[in-house]
Amino acid sequence: MVIYGVAILAVCMIVGMLLGEWLGIAIGVEANVGGVGIAMLILIIVIDRLKISNRLSEPTQMGLGFWNAMYIPIVVAMAANQNVVAALDGGPLAIVTGIAVVVISFLAVPFVSRIGKGKSESIDEGGRPL
Q1: pLDDT-above-70 percentage for the chain
Q2: In contact, 61 and 50? CB cutoff 8 Å
């Protein structure tokens, strides 16, 4: 059953990469535009829908959890490497903008972490809201 989690991850990755390529073509850029991010969003939506409909077994969830834990850091490292190279080629404005985005993101963490607090009590045993 763990292999089903890997299959769901793989299908989401393929669909996300295709959509990223098509988006790049649509805006005239010769690159994949957000394919990995699209794949992660699709994966989150698919997993959420399967959990709500109670069609995701425990071993499949464990497989997804394992590969998500492996997948996200690798993708972030790859994207960070590409972003640093592009920023260095883009000049000081790109570097300053990148630093500003990181600082703003760190400052936003406390505010984002407060979203949804206290709502976990209104969920039944099946994970559905009351």
Answers
A1: 75
A2: no
